[in-house]
């Protein structure tokens, strides 16, 4: 745990490498007792989360590269928020989002063969499949079929319902709360400020994967917010000798940090020379790539030492990656070999969710580099599936309610923070919406 916010100093990012004086959990003033996972097995609590969290916070729905030209659009299903949105680049070049609802009879406006599936494309206007009402790219109602049959309809009042939309470093966020007054940058806090300037726009080679997971959405975030499980669950990804060594000594992150509802963990990455010993499978040695990405980092216009201050905050020589959790469900991983991985966790019920993983690389210059990137992408897919399968077993046993209190170690500090934050949002929502006392 060398080098951390526990070490003090005037610089909030580049801290002293001296060891912390206390545990991470105690430093962040988080209770160290056993925890309950009742918030992950309750249909009633999930219904509260939908209104308290997913209809009130900033949600990342994509990137600007998905809207390369005027008229480009994509839809996003936000089941937890009881919404579907269409995100579009207007004729003025601006990125906007609208509720995906026709103002005539409430039909879903933009969809292809299956209404519940997401879609994308390019168009000059949006036309409802039901009665052909048409809207321009800025959401204005421009055509009503048989308009004379309506009773003096004022078309200026029936444009698409706009959703608050802001862009940070190319990431598109929406907020479904019409009363929200918190700008995106303020909401994302010091981590976003400390990441500003990272060249995400250069990482346009994209690999995506998606899985339906039979667990509560928070349980998967838990899995990626600690490395305590890695030497055990993922032991099959290592050679036997390496696996035994990691199991014996365990795994420690370099640094943890918390900022409001958000959190991060900075970790070593196993990429220090000799690289051939750090990676374990024959194909990884041949392609010089694997779990940590291609070994030969592409040029992104800045050296490791020049990275923005929130990235590798301890400036540790063995740093490998940082994992930022932007509450509620967006995880951003920045890797030393100059590539990025994002995770999204989209709840569909109290015990199911959609997991999306997206790898971003600098476009390959040749076939060998493309193979390096594809190996990194499929390796992460394998790790993710191992976690997802385990979480379904966790969910079923939590729902048995055989045990209701669980001890967590110091490496699981971010798990405590996530569940505490979720419960705090729900409590605040309940208090704000409690019926007024009667006299």
From TrEMBL:
Residues 1-21 are annotated as: Disordered. InterPro entries: Rieske_2Fe-2S, Rieske_2Fe-2S_sf, Ring_hydroxy_dOase_asu_C_dom, Rng_hydr_dOase-A. Keywords: 2Fe-2S, Iron, Iron-sulfur, Metal-binding, Oxidoreductase. Residues 58-174 form the Rieske domain. It comes from the Bacteria. The keyword Transport does not apply. SUPFAM superfamilies: Bet v1-like (SSF55961), ISP domain (SSF50022). Its cofactor is Fe cation. This is Phenylpropionate dioxygenase-like ring-hydroxylating dioxygenase large terminal subunit.
